[in-house]
Specification:
This protein has 360 residues and is of the alpha/beta class. The chain is built from 11 helices and 14 strands.
Length: 360
């Protein structure tokens, strides 16, 4: 396949986004693996580069088609005169710029001009949507913009550690209402298919965590266990439910390809303790690929050259790997062989042809 084109959003220009981007691409190694395209501001990038003393070079292009391999490319999405940079400060101008950058990247992603998007951190509270609704996060926004009616599944990955969430950032009091059979089954099937297609794991093993501390509540007996049993019969190798404390305490996650947590803190707290500074936020379940470093905007670190860029690098690697895996998975199934068998119930023993189908 052609060299993979990775779109990169600038995130909040007053945070650590450009610091991670410029630091990651200061050497030529990362740009040799893909064709990176920043959707951002040359003015902001130059400001950060000079203030941090980086030597990272980039070329400004007008369209993604003009991107050159082996170089860091940038599409200017702004009127530079109106862009105000205030390092370390949350501002509505920075929020508006972050949204413009994200929209430009998603437009090219949906048009097939880039293969995946890696998003830099932004501040949800500084973004004002035109419809007046609150901006509740990039995953939700991306789902609405390019999801084509499908639901995003939020995952956190680091090497072989993969933790997905049934429910996201909602109040604890509302979590039980979100754990129903339909939702749980849908989340497990999406996770199963993602592991097969995006991570190229042929027969993935999934551990399901319990909602209650000792896995002995009504949610386990009435909802979680019946769903696990039913899906296992249908070819989804999911087992559990496991109490989170004992599960992670015994390093049981190392025996599985992924873990499905019931709520945000249950999964993410364990993930960040294990992944440290290399975690990646992975958006699964959508037609288009998006990854992000699992770090915040970190205003207190901005402009000080103390931010660890490893999470951003891992987000780039994860995007490249997922694009390759999807291509390989789809390519191998483009023209599937037909299987031949005799239907015993057919008295004529007429030869039957049946199209090979993928398991759910």
């Amino acid at each position: 396949m052609e060299k993979i084109r990775i779109g990169i959003t600038q995130g909040d220009i007053n945070g650590v986004g450009y610091e991670m981007i410029l630091n990651s691409f200061e050497s030529e190694e990362l740009a040799s693996l893909c064709t990176p395209i920043i959707y951002g501001s040359p003015k902001a990038a130059t400001y950060h580069r000079k203030s941090l003393g980086y030597q990272t070079n980039f070329q400004v292009i007008n369209t993604s088609e003009a991107a050159k391999e082996g170089m860091l490319n940038m599409i200017n999405c702004f009127d530079e005169d109106e862009l105000k940079i205030e390092i370390g400060q949350p501002t509505e101008d920075a929020g508006a710029a972050a949204l413009v950058s994200l929209d430009c990247a998603l437009e090219d992603l949906k048009a097939g001009k880039i293969h995946a998007v890696v998003t830099a951190p932004l501040n949800n509270n500084t973004i004002k949507l035109s419809n007046g609704e609150p901006f509740v996060g990039q995953t939700n926004y991306i789902e609405r913009k390019v999801g084509e009616g499908k639901r995003a599944l939020k995952m956190f990955i680091c090497g072989n550690l993969r933790i997905a969430l049934v429910s996201d950032n909602i109040p604890v009091s509302e979590i039980p209402a979100h754990i129903n059979r339909e939702t749980l089954a849908e989340r497990l099937v999406v996770l199963h298919n993602t592991l097969k297609r995006d991570f190229f794991i042929d027969n993935p093993r999934i551990a399901v965590l319990s909602l209650n501390p000792h896995a002995d509540g009504k949610e386990e007996t009435e909802t979680i266990i019946p769903v696990i049993d039913e899906l296992f019969k249908r070819g989804v190798r999911c087992v559990g439910p496991y109490a989170a404390e004992a599960f992670f305490g015994a390093s049981s996650h190392t025996y599985f390809d992924a873990v499905l947590a019931m709520y945000y803190d249950q999964g993410v707290s364990a993930f960040k303790a294990l992944a440290l500074n290399e975690g990646v936020n992975y958006t699964a379940g959508l037609p288009f690929l998006r990854t992000a470093p699992a770090v915040g905007v970190n205003y207190e670190q901005a402009g000080k050259d103390i931010t660890d860029e490893q999470a951003f690098r891992q987000a780039i690697y994860a995007a490249i790997d997922a694009v390759r895996n999807r291509f390989r998975f789809d390519h191998e199934r483009t023209n599937p062989l037909k299987k031949q068998y005799f239907e015993k119930r057919d008295d004529s023993d007429k030869l039957k042809l049946d199209q090979v189908t993928e398991e759910e």
